[in-house]
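Now for my pick.
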Amino acid sequence: MLFIATMEKSVTPLIARILGSYHEIGGINNIDGSNLPSKRAIAQICEDLLQLLFPGFHDEEPIATEQVREITSARILSVAERLRIEAFKSLRLQEPKCPSRRAEQLVFDLISQLPNVRDLLQTDVEAAYEGDPSSTSFDEIIVSYPCIEAIAIQRIAHILYKGELPLIPRIMTEWAHSRTGIDIHSGAEIGSHFFIDHGTGVVIGETCRIGSHVKLYHGVTLGARSFQKDEAGKIKKGGKRHPDVEDWVTIYPNSTILGGATKIGARSTIGGNVFLMESIPPDSLVTNEKAQIKIVSKRNRRAPTQSDPSSSPESDWSWEI
């Protein structure tokens, strides 16, 4: 009791300061406003959507054939009701008098497109299997490859994005981003047979348009080149800011491609560590030839001495960039 009393006495001035900041600092408060969508609820919805998209792969218990109808029906109804609640919260932020049927229609449209999403995801799994020589089965890809999870959530979020649902599509893709290290904006348009090898550090911007049979490696950025500003010097929102990638393109690790007017022609290959801000025609090969690697032998080198540690074999390696 003494501890609690002491803490209350110490904390009371701090509470007053925090409350004061609520009045002084705007833009990061949501007091007396509409209830925001729940990130926790949306995270669980994403988990349940993965169960619907890949039945049996995200479950702790096996699913028998005779149980599929009952389990699927229960999951769809549960996801639909919870997503309807969160969608209504989101819509109400921009339109306080938004009718509830608008949220219901968005959810119905999403559920109705789940078979189409599964068709696309089947091609993504096939692309991963064909594109990665270390893959041993579709099962391995679905349960362990981060790109499949990130792409699956993005394809779902993109449907809601096209339906002009605020907040929730971005919350969904950022949930996937936090789990996989792959950052795909919900607005990006992505064709079939899409594969991201390894995946960590990949960034795909909102206005990207990616064709079919495209393969990216880790560290690839499809980003914006620059931002237009208004008379007050503030960045203008919207507009085509990110590149287009046509069919059958491969982009190797740590390459950066920027600009809304930039187009990578079909069947082109972008080598590693390329920085590109201009369009290239189909069937192009783009490489970075600035780096020069020098390799010297470590054999027959004199043994290191205490007075000259720089003579150790490890120090014999050298390179030039």
Q: What stands out?
A: The two ends are 66 Å apart (CA to CA).
